[in-house]
Amino acid sequence: MKQIREISQKIDPYSLRLRLTIAVTAVSALSLGSLAIWTSWKMQELLINNHKQNVEEIAQRLPRDVQLYSGMMPSITGLQKAINNLTITNTFLWVKTPNNQVIVKSNNWQQLPNETATELISLGEMSQKPQVKKLDKRYFVIRSGVLPLRDRGLSKLFVVKDVTREQTTFLAMVRNLGIGSVLAVVAISLLAAFYIRQALQPLRQLNQMTSVISITDLGQAKLYLENAPSEVKELAQTFNMMLSRLFQSWEQERQFVSNVSHELRTPLTIVHGYLQSVLRRQNNLTPTQQEALETAAAEAERTIRLLQDLLDLARADSGYLQFQMEICVLNDLIVEVVGMAEKYSDRQITVESTTNRVEAKADYNRLKQVLLNLIDNAVKYSDADTPITIKLHQQEQEAIIQICDQGYGIPLQHQARIFERFYRLDEARSSSTGGSGLGLSIVKTLVESMGGSVTVRSRVATDRQTKSLTQGSTFTITLPIH
Description:
56% of the residues lie in helices and 17% in strands. It is an alpha+beta fold. The model is unreliable at 427-432 and 464-469 (pLDDT under 50).
């Protein structure tokens, strides 16, 4: 039962393979069923209907013969002679009075067992059309009628023919035909399922090839199928044209972002420089003017950082982002990063690391940028009185850095998307903290470009007293040692 349940769970009721198999099975069952019914009808006509017709002819001829013989001899003698003349192999005749007394019967009843003969004789009114009836494990075609006699009035005529052999043969052939039809339908269904599976293999190959295409290899991706039907090859060509258009669109978008970021960064840097220069000579400024200039300078600096992030992402997408890979002592790097972060954040940052030197192959400055981004993220999304912890240790051939906070936490349904560009968990909170939705995307791009990986683990729970999210998040960076 467990195996059947597992198989039923794997069957997709909406799959093309299942639908085609069901269609072929239904057509096969309908065709073979119709053929079996027609064959059974013809067999019955050949084996049984001829006997019914023979019985009907005897029942219709007997009254004429009785009338003919009754003019030459006594009625009972003429009746017996007429019955004897019409008696053939396996055919039995008898005549009853209206009160069910047998007055004449054929002379071949010794061919039947006594029990069967007695049961036949005891039959009462029967249909005037020949019918097949089973008596004592034997089959008979039975027909009754009315026989007028000169001195007996209207009597009952019974004509019976033993068709046991024919009916048994007919039933056996019908049974074998039914079993053969079922087996044929099963065999056709299995063969059809196998053939349909093989025929749909190019579509599965097409699905597998398209599922592994990423944005990085979009320009080089080409779908090619051998020994595939013409329709599937046309579909593959359509996919190739679509991939080419997507690549061109992606290139145009990337180039646009790169050009805009580059062109806007220079004038904004100049504007930011002039604003800072004016703020340094603030003696002639009113408080309102000074506040406005400080806001403009802050927004200009934020926009410059955003443009720099966009430019870095565009360069990474195009493969132009340069890395100077070297063996870095992560203990020293983390001490430096923590010192820089504590100056601008005024937050307590705790370092937990082994006494041993932990080295990894990375770009020193890029890794510093990654850690500052993650620490900045932890500062923005945790309360000011909660600590931030950085953990460093080595596990086999990998160096592991963890940035832990006790902030708001990230719901599970959002954890898979927080590394996407411009994705924000909370639009209102992100806007208030100045986030652009690019920080974690930059982190993921830089870490993966250095051969590492970054993951997040976060638990969200509601504190019963403060009703605030208190569990926090842990970002884990894994880098190769060599």
